[in-house]
From TrEMBL:
L-homocysteine binds at I412, G413, S414, D580. This is 5-methyltetrahydropteroyltriglutamate--homocysteine S-methyltransferase. Its cofactor is Zn(2+). Pfam families: Meth_synt_1, Meth_synt_2. Binds 2 Zn(2+) ions per subunit. Coiled coil: none annotated. Zn(2+) binds at H622, C624, E646, C707. Residues 4-309 form the Cobalamin-independent methionine synthase MetE N-terminal domain. It is an enzyme of class 2 (transferase). NCBIfam families: met_syn_B12ind (TIGR01371), PRK05222.1 (NF003556). L-methionine binds at I412, G413, S414, E465, D580. It comes from Sulfurospirillum diekertiae.
Amino acid sequence: MSQTYVTGFPRIGEKRELKFALEEYWAGKTDFEALKAVAKTLRNRHWNYQKERHIDFISCNDFSLYDIMLDTTVMLGAIPPRFENIDDKTDRYFAMARGDDDHAAMEMTKWFNTNYHYIVPELHANMNFSHVNISKIAEEFIEAKAQGVHPKINLVGPLTFIFLSNAVDGSDLFNLFDAVVTAYAKVLYAISSLGENIVVQFDEPLFAKTLEPKFLSLLKIAYERLGVVSPNLKIAVVTYFDRANEAVEILGNCPIWGIGLDFVYGEENLDALLHVNGKMLIAGVIDGRNVWKNNVSKTYNLLEKISEKIDAQQIIISTSCSLLHVPFSTQFEEKLAPEVKSRLSFALEKLVELEQINTLWEKQEKPEASACTQKAPSVKSSAIAYTRSSYTTRFALQQKALNLPLFPTTTIGSFPQTKETRAVRNAFKKGEITREAYEASLKESIKKCVELQEALGLDVLVHGEFERNDMVEYFGELLEGFAFSENGWVQSYGSRCVKPPLLYGSVSRKQPLSVDWSVYAQSLTDKPMKGMLTGPVTILNWSFVRNDIPKSEVAFEVARAIAEEVDELQRHDIKIIQVDEAAFKEGYPLREEKIKAYEKWAVESFKASIGIAWDQTQIHTHMCYSNFNDIIDTIERMDADVITIETSRSGNKLLKVFQKANYKAQIGPGVYDIHSPRVPSVEEMSEQIKAFLHVLPKEQLWINPDCGLKTRGWSETKAALANMIKAVHLAR
Ligand code: MET
Ligand SMILES: [Zn+2]
C-alpha cells in the first residue's frame, strides 16, 4: 500500500478569509477571538479537504497568522530584545511582523526563489533559547486530532533557520548552532508527549542550494541528535526547490525516519537514492510551484525510475513542496476560457492528482503516454538579430541626439497612484465608464505629470504609468497567450496576496502596448520622453509559465513582442526606452551549476527585446536591488546604455563593483529611497552624489530616485524630487 503526503497547505483561505480577518483585526474592527475563530475554521476546512482525498500525511503547524519563520522565532523563544517590552503576546507578534508606533518591523525577505516573504529572525551571540514554547503546535495538533486527523507536525529545520537569520551584533551565527539544536531537541521532547507515533517534518530547503561543506557536517550533527530525542517520533527531513544530493548522503546515515526530495525541480535527486538507506522516501512528484495539470504518464515514469533504486514499500508519494505557492482551487474560476481552465491545477486539484497517481501506482496500472499536445512554433534566439553597434559608438550618437546635461536627471517611471487613479481604472474595467472617458482621464493625469516634471526641471521625463495596475499584468492583458484568473491568489507576505498572470499559450503582440501614452506624453514637451516597458525575464519570473516548452523559448516569444513595441516607439520618435528587469535576480537558480543556463536565456532574451533599437535610441533598464557582486559581468552583457538601480541606502559601497569591473555604460544609482515617505534633504543627496563620484566617472552618472514612485503621495514626491534637482544643480 503506497501512501500520500502533502508537504504543506495554503492557509490564506479559498476566498482569502484569513487576509480579511487579519485586516479587520489590525484595523481594530474585530477582536482577537474573532480572528482566532476564522483561523480555526480555515484549518478545519483545509484538513477536511485533505482527508476527503485520503491523504495519509496531513500537516499541522503549516498554518500561521503571519509567517512560519516568525512562528519558529517565537517557538524557540528568540524574541529580539527590542520587542521584549511588549507584554501582550499577540501585540508583540504583530509588532514583530509589521512594526507599531514604537517599533520598526523586523526585516522581511523572499523565501528562496519564491515570491513568499518570511520575517528574518534577529539573533545575537548571547541568545540562550531557554524559553521554547510549543503551545501553537499543541493547539493545532489537538484540534486536528479532534477532527480525526493524526497530523504530522511541520517545523522549519534548524540549519535553514540559522542560515536565514540575521546577526544583529555582527556575530557568527554558527556559534549559536549548539544552542539552537538544543532548543529544537527540547521542542521535540515536548512534542513527544502529545501522542504516539508522531511524524515531525523538518523543512530544510537550505540544502537545495550550493553550500560549503561546513553546512553538511552541521546537518549531520543536528540530525544525529534530533533523530534520537524520542522513540515516539518519526523524523522526516524534507528539501525542495532543487536537488539535495549532498544532504541525502548525510541524512541516509542519520537516525531519522524519512527524507523528502523534490523530483520536479531536482530530478538529479534520482542519483542520490542509493544513499537513502532503507528510510522512507517522501517523493515530491506533484509540482507544488506551478499551476498546470500533472502529466500522469510522466509522473508514473518518474515513480518507476525511483523504484528501480528503492523498494516500492519505502516510497511515499508527495507534492514537490508546500502548496503555499499555488492558488487554492480552480473551481472558483468562472470566466477563464475552457481551453485554459482545463489545463490548470491549483492546490485542491493537486490533492486529487496525488490520489489519482497513488491509485495507479498501487495497481501498477501504467497510464498511456498523453498524446503529444500541439506545440507552439518556437522562436529561436537566432531569429532575432542583435544589430546594435558598440557602446562607444552608440554613446556618441545618443549624446548628439539627446544633448543631455552632465548628471542627467530622471525617474524610474511611475508617479503616485492615488485612490482616484485606481478608482477610474476599476470603473473602466467594470464597464461603468466609457473608453473615451477613461482615456481622457488618463491623458489628464499624464498632462499634469509632465507639467510637474517640467516645472521641477527634470531632464528625461516619463508619462507616469497611470494606465498600469501592475508592471506585468498590464502587458500580459494586452498580449496574446496570457490569461488572468479571478481568484488565483497566492500569499506573498502576511495578509498580502498576489495573482500572477497565467502564461499559457503562444505569446504575441496584436496591438501596441504603450505607444499611445508615450506619444501623447511626448507631444506635451520638448524634453525627451522615456518609453516604459517591462522586460521578458521579469514578465516570466512574475507569471505562472507554461511548462510544455522550455522557458527559454517562452522568453523569446515575449522578447519578440517587446521588441516590436520598442521598434514602434522609436519609429514614433521616442528616443529613450526603458525596459525594466525588476525581477532579473529573483530568477537565479539555487544551484551554482544551473546559473549559466539561466543567465544565458535571460541575457539573450533581454537582448532580443532591445536588439532592434537603433544606435541612437538610448536603452535604459532598471533593477530593484543593489547587490551586483556576482552578476556584474552578466549585467554588462545585457548591453543597456543606462541602468538604474537601488543603492540609495549604501552610499557608494555597492557601486564599487561597477568600478572594479570597469563598467563602461551609464548608471543611475538611486539617490534616495522611495520605500519611505521621508523627504531627504538637499545636503543628504549632495553627499550621496559626492559618494557616487568617488567611484564613478562623472560622464557615467545619472541622478534618479531608486525605484518607481507609485506607492508614494504627491506632496512628498514633489518635495523629494525638488531637493534632488537642487542637489544636482549644486553638483554641476
Ligand atoms: C519594481 S520596479 C518598477 C519599475 C516601474 N517602471 C515603476 O516605476 O514603477
Ligand atoms: Zn524598482
